[in-house]
Amino acid sequence: MNPQEIKAFLKSVKETDIEELEYQSGEDSLYFKKSAAEFDAAPAAQAAAEQVVAEEEKSSIVAITSATVGTFHAAGSDKSQVIKEGSSVEPGKKVGQIEAMKIIKDVVSKVKGKVVKVSVANGASVEYGQELFLVDTSK
């Protein structure tokens, strides 16, 4: 076997579950044994890949946050448009209001998707940047 054949052979064996191999043909012989680190690395690599998938799914979740300090109102004058879990939102859609010192500011979605979590109750005090809703933008 020439070095390129050996390299190709080792590469093909590496992708299998063969742990140890001894090969002999005429004057050529080859002994191969996977190290324990390779065995431990396989489950770790799979776990890392699963974590990447989970993070990608998680990254499709976007928070609608408070732009000011005040009292959150889930609905304005039209109570039929209260945003609940499962509600669809789109950019520009009013999702609530925040009242501070008798000044009312609309909370508007900047993303399109489905609300997966309502993080504050109607009438609750909110801080600047506080999460109000979580929206899954993949739906």
TrEMBL record:
The lineage of its organism: Bacteria, Pseudomonadati, Elusimicrobiota, Endomicrobiia, Endomicrobiales. Keywords: Lipoyl. Pfam families: Biotin_lipoyl (PF00364). Its cofactor is (R)-lipoate. Residues 64-133 form the Lipoyl-binding domain. It comes from Endomicrobium proavitum. InterPro entries: 2-oxoA_DH_lipoyl-BS, Biotin_lipoyl, Single_hybrid_motif. SUPFAM superfamilies: Single hybrid motif (SSF51230). The keyword Manganese does not apply. This is Biotin carboxyl carrier protein of acetyl-CoA carboxylase. It comes from the Bacteria.
